[in-house]
Recover the amino acids of this structure.
């Protein structure tokens, strides 16, 4: 029997987390009652790591989902730190896989089984889902018809532009017409839905908490690829994402961490030419950038990582 620990990190996201757990309850019952296409039964357990919420999330989760294990950190230790707490718990119980899942998602009932089936080869270390924008949460809401909403892609595989050091989502903003329905290798798997084989974590370690939030998933995937593991995009695993529920795309928080953490990823993995380009860009931010970008670059230069 394959065992899967599903880990959600919650920070003042009570309503989103409750909706996600409600969808996972359907997944749980279907997986325990049935089997995957490969004929292998699976057992799943949900773990919610609460990062010091003040919105009564913990009380609501325990009341409505008593089968879910809740771990309270008492403070906001970020996406990386929160997931690490859940991962450690899963490793203690020797789960075969850990599925990291954003709390602001709703999942299809076959989302777990499709990922497990795709991980049939031991060379597959990490697998991720096809992810749509939740209806009404698209970047460009007016662009789509009512029928198209719910089929607008947020992630259909990861792309990395090494010359400019940008990680992006394939297919983002496109209406799904089957153009990304093939299982295939990808440059990175988003932490929004990341199925990880236990042995990968045992070999490469946990998320780097220097990131706190954003791009820790890219860093984790690149470490796995360095050891020869395959990263898969699995379109048969589907979920809907409400998109940046905790910090908001374009917010100061989002801008700060993306600017700072992009430098960390680039300096670790990019070629020499890209590193020089990033250094020039960082200096421009220091002298001519916004106050948020200036702070992000300065913190990176002096090694001030983690929560800021």
């Amino acid at each position: 029997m394959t065992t899967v620990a599903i880990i959600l990190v919650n920070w003042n996201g009570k309503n989103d987390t409750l909706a996600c757990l409600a969808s996972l309850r359907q997944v749980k019952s279907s997986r325990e009652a049935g089997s995957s296409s490969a004929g292998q039964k699976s057992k799943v357990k949900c773990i919610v790591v609460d990062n010091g919420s003040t919105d009564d999330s913990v009380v609501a989760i325990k009341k409505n989902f008593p089968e879910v294990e809740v771990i309270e950190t008492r403070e906001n230790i970020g996406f990386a730190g929160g997931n690490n707490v859940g991962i450690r718990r899963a490793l203690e119980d020797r789960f075969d896989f850990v599925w990291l899942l954003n709390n602001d998602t709703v999942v299809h009932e076959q989302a777990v089984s499709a990922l497990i089936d795709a991980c049939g080869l031991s060379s597959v270390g990490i697998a991720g889902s096809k992810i749509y924008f939740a209806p009404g949460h698209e970047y460009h809401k007016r662009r789509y018809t009512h029928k198209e909403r719910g089929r607008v892609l947020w992630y259909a595989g990861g792309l990395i532009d090494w010359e400019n050091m940008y990680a992006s989502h394939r297919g983002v903003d496109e209406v799904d017409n089957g153009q990304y329905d093939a299982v295939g290798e990808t440059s990175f798997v988003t932490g929004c839905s990341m199925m990880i084989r236990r042995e990968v974590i045992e070999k490469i370690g946990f998320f780097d908490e220097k990131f706190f939030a954003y791009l820790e998933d890219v860093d984790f995937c690149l470490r796995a690829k360095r050891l020869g593991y395959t990263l898969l995009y699995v379109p048969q695993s589907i979920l809907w994402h409400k998109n940046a529920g905790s910090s908001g795309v374009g917010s100061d928080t989002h801008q700060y961490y993306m600017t700072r953490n992009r430098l960390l990823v680039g300096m670790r993995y990019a070629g020499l030419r890209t590193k020089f380009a990033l250094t020039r860009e960082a200096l421009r931010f220091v002298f001519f950038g916004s106050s948020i970008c200036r702070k992000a670059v300065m913190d990176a230069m002096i090694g001030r990582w983690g929560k800021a």
